[in-house]
Design goal:
The complex is a heterodimer of chains A (about 180) and B (about 170). Chain A has about 180 residues and is an alpha+beta fold. By secondary structure, chain B is of the alpha/beta class. Chain B has a single domain, classed as Glutaredoxin (3-Layer(aba) Sandwich). Chain B is built from 4 helices and 9 strands. A 5-stranded mixed β-sheet of chain B has the order 5-4-3-8-9. Chain B has a two-stranded antiparallel ribbon with strand order 1-2. In chain B, a hairpin with a 4-residue loop joins strand 6 and strand 7. Classes of the chains: A alpha+beta (about 180), B alpha/beta (about 170). At the A-B interface, helix 6 of A face helix 1 of B.
Chain lengths: ~180, ~170
């Protein structure tokens, strides 16, 4: 069974309660259409499970297949360095069909981030080491495509349909309440 | 599932088409670790399938100076189109005629399906199998087992020993 080799820490992009009984980690690619679909399912899961669910996103750009995945990840990390990761993350997935520099600049402007900083981050690949580290940690954890999910550190083996993810989360919750 | 060749076995040599007019022999790969992987077919319909994943992980494999080759029963023209489509930076070999002969030699052929297993082999510099793993055909085995094996191989080489990989993929 594949397990998460890099534990979730405060260096991760995290949404939700740190004491939540269930942590969902996604390894995702901003240009992957399956991740684009999963984006909306995660929003739904977060609504459904509220404080019981903590969500972390890590980069797994398949750059050869998706040439805009890595620049998009760099843009998200750039926003993250300014404390606006999730707004950018959402903006990228909600506009997945129009990824590219004009969108990156527009989203960055909307968040009030400096355009020169954005362009420099992209040109110098300032955040590439972090993205590669995410990627390699994913590979070592058995991520074999996108999206790959880990629930409380164990790879989710089913499909990433809402019902399958919810069933896996329910199983973890049941196990935790039994242990408590 | 087929019973694939185990660590410690000398990897059977072969010569297969790498492009419609070029051949590659396994013995040409001597001197470096080799990641030899069999997979069922080109044109798998999912994002981040095995061939694409290894393409992305290539820089990591290269840190161990390893060469990567993929083998399926698809023909050389099919491989050429597929490799171009996926922007693959490593060769795909056509185990096409006689069909699946190399996969069979490695115990990695699915008789009922007429295609190769998802079988992974890491060979040492002398062409001996250092690590092998056969994944259920529907499951992309990922790259973690391969990277661990390459790390173990490097470690074994440093210690000058001939120890086989103790790691297991999953």
């Amino acid at each position: 069974m594949a397990t998460l080799k890099v534990p979730v820490t405060q260096n991760d992009h995290i949404q939700g309660n740190n004491d939540a009984p269930v942590t969902l980690v996604e390894y995702g690619d901003y240009q992957c259409p399956f991740c684009g679909r999963a984006y909306y399912l995660i929003k739904q899961l977060q609504k459904e499970y509220g404080p019981q669910l903590r969500f972390a996103f890590r980069n797994f750009p398949l750059s050869e297949m998706h040439p805009l995945a890595e620049p998009a990840a760099e843009v998200a990390e750039f926003a993250g360095a300014h404390g606006r990761f999730w707004e950018m993350h959402d903006g990228l997935y909600e506009n997945q069909d129009s990824l590219g520099l004009p969108l990156f600049v527009e989203l960055s402007d909307d968040l009030g981030l400096p355009e020169t900083g954005l362009r420099r981050a992209l040109a110098d690949h300032q955040f590439l080491p972090k993205i590669r580290a995410d990627f390699l940690g994913g590979v070592r954890s058995g991520v074999n495509g996108t999206p790959t999910f880990f629930i409380n550190g164990t790879r989710h083996e089913g499909s990433y349909e809402y019902e399958d993810l919810a069933a896996d989360i329910d199983a973890r919750l049941a196990r935790q309440s039994k242990a408590a | 599932m087929a019973s694939i060749l185990a660590p410690g076995t000398q990897a059977p040599d072969f010569t297969l088409n790498v492009t419609p007019d070029q051949k590659l022999s396994l013995k040409e790969m001597r001197g470096k670790p080799t990641v030899l992987f069999f997979y069922p077919a080109d044109w798998s319909p999912v994002c981040g399938d095995q061939t694409s994943l290894y393409n992305e992980v290539l820089p990591e494999f290269q840190k161990y100076e390893a060469e990567v080759v993929g083998v399926s029963v698809d023909g050389a023209w099919c491989h050429a189109a597929f490799a171009k489509h996926q922007h693959l930076h490593y060769p795909l070999l056509a185990d096409f005629e006689p069909k699946g002969a190399v996969a069979k030699a490695y115990g990695a052929y699915r008789n009922n399906d007429g295609c190769a297993e998802r079988a992974l082999f890491v060979l040492d510099e002398d062409g001996k199998i250092f690590w092998s793993y056969c994944s259920p055909v529907a499951v992309n085995p990922g790259a973690d087992g391969i990277l661990q094996a390459l790390e173990d191989l490097q470690h074994a080489r440093k210690n000058n020993g001939n120890v086989e990989s103790t790691s297991h993929a999953k």
